[in-house]
Amino acid sequence: METLRYGNKGPMVEYLQLALTRAGFDPGRIDGIFGKRTLNALERFQRANGLVADGIAGRLTWAKLYPYLAGYTIHVVRQGDTLGAIARMHNTTVSAIETANPEIEAENLAIGAELVVPLDFPVVPEQVSYSYALTSIVLDGLGARYPFLQQGRIGTSVMGKSLYSVAIGQGRKQVGYNASHHANEWITTPVLLKFLERYAAAYVTGGSVGGTPARTLYNTTTLYLVPLVNPDGVDLVTGALKPGDSYYEQARAFAAFYPAIPFPSGWKANISGVDLNLGYPAEWERARSIKFSQGYTRPGPRDYVGTAPLAEPENRAMARFTRAHDFRLTLSYHTQGRVIFWKFLDYEPEGSRQIAEAFSEVSGYLVEETPYSSGFAGYKDWFIQSYNLPGYTIEAGLGENPLPISQFPDIYRENEGILTLGMVLAPD
After folding, report:
1. Who contacts 66 (Cβ-Cβ below 8 Å, separation ≥6)?
2. Which residues does the annotation mark as catalytic?
3. In what order do the strands lie in the sheet with 391-396?
């Protein structure tokens, strides 16, 4: 995390404000502006945690703030500790500690043992801009709370950032969901992460998610998520990648050839200026012809198809990951339009239209065929063509991308049913 001072702005300031809020030191509204109220809250936090109260969020301060982003702390067992006492000390529950530490013996705590202690708030934030750094922290926090989650790395981005996967469940049937192929559609990343958190919590308690018992889902299906396909592009859009960085300046130079597209808010592509959802081998040449005729003939913010299908590392990683599994259904999350796209050319996998209509019923989204100008070389297109199984693009929310985070509660509410039904209705 970058060192922050009074006057700084951007997503890292949002994370500072979020952590201070969760820690009980009110910085005011989470607005990404390091003003006087944030400064005062930070100084009070530093004094309370034995740090120099200099109002600068540096390495030591971030280390103390980290639990309030990841949602857990580490407790070293001391003489006389009990799970009840540890839970009271950290304002959490014994059951949360037991879930995070499945091997512990409550009546025989080993002195010096390190216990993961979940804190008393959800890990996935709903009021901040997302970035690669925050996604990494959230996945760390969810993995610590719910050690039955299976986390992995499917490849790297152009800039070398890890492309993370996470799986939940032990069923024979496999489904795959992804988000943020497009940079300025980053609000889809917390949609998948919140669903994962709600599902994991419901599994532990014996509750339901999307109206279906979580343990039934867990025992019948294995769900794989890739929540951030395009981390470099997302960082550019949300401000985690700063002016002056060579990749930022390269993107700015690409964008200059498309002056009608706002920069960086109009950026959909990866950091090399290639639209990742036009990068799969499903009539890629036709996509190239369409986009070139529209003037997208070189790297830029959107709609440039690149030099060949699967030429970009993010596309290759997604293709390898898909081929390595037996997904019976896929969902690709985008924004916006409140629309479900379900077909590719004349491919109509058995039951796929009926599943789309079920998605529509629980979400209120319309079921439509992809417009011709956007109907080729996407992940959904490639999956349907390659496997003749149901694949869907979900266009969540309404408005102009990037959608404001204020839309998140409505978008999540509309989509929890889709995310659940994808597991229920995927063919065996």
Report:
1. 19, 137
2. 395
3. 150-156, 162-168, 221-226, 173-179, 327-335, 391-396, 339-341, 366-368
pLDDT given at position 373: 78
Burial 262-291 (b: 16+ CB within 10 A, else e): ebbebbbbbbbbbbbbbbbbbbbeebbebb
83-99 as b/e: b if 16+ CB within 10 A: beebbeebebeeebbeb
Share of the chain above pLDDT 90, in %: 97
For residue 177, pLDDT over 90 is answered with yes
Q: What is the DSSP letter of 262?
A: -
| Model pLDDT for residues 215-227, shown as the tens digit of each residue | 999 999 999 999 9
370 pLDDT band (50/70/90 cuts)?
confident
Helix then strand then coil, in percent of the chain rounded to 5, is: 40, 15, 40
**Two tokens, residue 189:** 């990343």
Q: What rounded mean pLDDT belongs to the chain?
A: 97
- Token digits of residue 146: 């719910």
The sign of the CA dihedral 14, 19, 25, 29 is: positive
